[in-house]
Amino acid sequence: MTLEGAAAALVAAGRRLDALGLVPATAGNFSVRLDARRLAVTVSGRHKGFLTADDVMVVDLDGIAEDPRKKSSAETLLHCGIYRRFPQAGAVLHGHSIANTFLSRAAGNDLTLAGYELLKAFPGLPTHDAEVTLPVIPNDQDIARMQRGLDLLWDGLPSIPPGYLIRGHGSYVWAPDMPAALMRMEALEFMLACELEERRQPR
Ligand SMILES: CSCCC(=O)C(=O)COP(=O)(O)O
Ligand SMILES: [Zn+2]
User: Fold this and answer.
1) Quick one: pLDDT band at residue 165, thresholds 50, 70, 90?
2) 167 C-alpha to ligand 2 centroid (Å)
3) I need a surface site. Which of 47, 134, 178, 203 has the fewest CB within 10 A?
């Protein structure tokens, strides 16, 4: 993918996720893979609903910026960690919603979503009669350490779902391309909103 195409995809993703309330304030960050060694990622601290092409920059898989005058997302190393581990990952989205924040604070080490039609948005789940268990990892301002923890966690999982939650912080999903990543993010956040609604019901 070209940098111009990547920038257009990230700007459009920001508008879409902002319209859904998933990137309040300057929260969230997005990326797409450019080639085997590089990704295009959002610049840190920008409101993701109002991105322009100038708010997208190139880093390598170690998070090193091509243009050192620009500062990439504070969470760049989580994007790099996904592209390094999953060769089929072509786009990564991170959002902060009320549902993912609340539920990740209430959850243990993982969160299972079961019986939702929208589970079909995740790979290998052809019917609603299925479940996906997403890891919930501790939040940490040391992003390199958080990624090391994720790598250890992934090493121990028999199969790795294409997403996770960071406690009290937000959700990450990835997919082969941006349209598929958006579909996963919307489906995940819809199911989390349903879970939140269920917990609001009087028992
Ligand atoms: C105001 S949100 C706090 C930082 C964060 O969690 C986030 O997703 C946005 O950080 P970035 O550096 O990518 O703008
Ligand atoms: Zn965040």
Assistant:
1) very high
2) 11
3) 203
pLDDT at position 190 is: 98
Which superfamily does CATH assign the domain made up of 3-200 to?
A: Class II aldolase/adducin N-terminal domain (3.40.225.10)
**Is a pLDDT exceeding 80 seen at residue 203?**
no
Rounded average pLDDT over 17-40: 98
In this prediction the pTM is 0.98
ipTM: 0.98
Ligand 1: residues with CB < 6 A are 25-29, 42, 44-45, 73-75, 94
Q: Which atom of ligand 1 is nearest to the CA of 27?
A: 2
* Three-class secondary structure assignment of the chain: CCHHHHHHHHHHHHHHHHHCCCCCCCCCEEEEECCCCEEEEEECCCCHHHCCHHHEEEEECCCCECCCCCCECCCHHHHHHHHHHCCCCCEEEEECCHHHHHHHHHCCCEEEEECCHHHHHCCCCCCCCCEEEEEEECCCCCHHHHHHHHHHHHHCCCCCCCEEEECCCEEEEEECCHHHHHHHHHHHHHHHHHHHHHHHCCC
